[in-house]
Amino acid sequence: MLLDGYGRTARDLRVSLTDRCNLRCTYCMPAEGLEWQPVEETLTDDEMLRVIRIAVERLGVTKIRFTGGEPLLRGGLEDIVAGAARLDPRPELALTTNGLGLDKRVAALAAAGLDRVNISLDSLDPQRYAQLARRDRLDDVLKGIEAADRAGLRPVKVNSVIMRGINEPDIVPLSQFCLERGYELRFIEQMPLGPRGEWDREAMVTAEEILAPLQERYGLSAAEEPRGAAPAQLWQVAADDSQPGGRIGVIASVTHPFCGDCDRTRITSDGQVRTCLFSRTETDLRAILRGGGTDDDVVAAWTGAHRAKPRAHGIDDDDFVQPERTMSAIGG
Question: I need a surface site. Which of 12, 55, 207, 291 has the fewest CB within 10 A?
């Protein structure tokens, strides 16, 4: 198992399939984009599937989330999902995506074995969406969300980052949009993983600020189910004559970190183990894979890295330094 020095066991694997993205969201990357990693440095489909197989069969991973960049830009995505779905024991398979083009591929992904999706949607207002994403693609995202629902990838989860002075007016409309359609909304505090030097904690919209208008509108109550290792704190909206019920989550990685319950491990698209989203060290599995290493060699390197997992991400520490990689290069 992937057991760290604080007694936590990683059973949730985040697999980044590419660092490329077709949006330029302000909280993720600069307007001009980033220098993409060379294709030859990216793990091949077979290498990705070998890493996933080892994680499931040898290391006890039970959940796999495919991320990016934008994972829909990975041409072999359906084959990778299908290969992971054939493993025994079969892991739960999820996808985090910006939704662009999902409507054209979701049927094939569901047929391959994908269980559910998280789709980014930061505003329902076309101008505010374009301001945040730096692309006028709101209609395409909405098509992707609707297609995922039709394909039965339920519950469809929607991720929203609220940025001060931009999309705060969307907090309640986004919630109502999701409640009316049976989607589960997740608000996420902005984290220091975007363009270097641009994150300002004082300017960040906190979980409390997000919850305030929701409490006023809906009168939230804490969800009864235990949170466990899940990153989102869930809140229940009671149904009445004026609105449907449902759940809304808030991921407060900065103001209310959940590091003590973390059950995640990560593989970047170029084959590096990251034990924490904010790690400043990585362990190279690609060199083992391409150097003729055995599965035992991969297991030894991975378990060794995980034993050194830090206690917490340390955002509040005086010596905290943002990782060199941005979110798009790490994988969400």
Answer: 291
Measured between alpha carbons, how far is 269 from 37 in angstroms, rounded to an integer?
A: 9
Peptide bond into 323 cis (omega under 30): no
Q: What is the pLDDT of residues 136-173, one digit of tens each?
A: 999 999 999 999 999 999 999 999 999 999 999 999 99
Contact 277, 221 (CB under 8 A): no
DSSP of 48-87: HHHHHHHHHHHH---EEEEESS-GGG-TTHHHHHHHHHTS
The predicted structure's pLDDT at residue 280: 86
Q: Considering the entire predicted model, what is its pTM? A: 0.95
Residue 85 amino acid letter: A
Distance CA 262, CA 43 (A): 26
Q: Give the per-residue pLDDT at 16.
A: 97
C-beta separation of 10 from 265 below 8 A: yes
Of 181, 194, 123, 195, the residue nearest 148 (C-alpha)? 181
Amino acid at residue number 67: T
Mean pLDDT of 109-116: 98
Q: 26 in helix, strand or coil?
A: coil
Q: Which residues of 181-201 are buried (b: 16+ CB within 10 A; e: fewer)?
A: eebbbbbbbbbbbbeeeebee
Q: In the prediction, which pLDDT does 229 show?
A: 80
The CATH number of the domain holding residue 182 is 3.20.20.70
- Show the domain range for 79: 2-330
**Average pLDDT value for residue range 188-209:** 86
Name the domain count of the chain: 1
Cα(121)–Cα(161) distance, integer angstroms: 8
- Range 171-175, long-range pairs (CB < 8 A, 24+ positions): 171/210, 171/213, 171/214, 172/213, 172/214, 172/217, 173/124, 174/121, 174/123, 174/124, 175/214, 175/217, 175/218, 175/237, 175/248
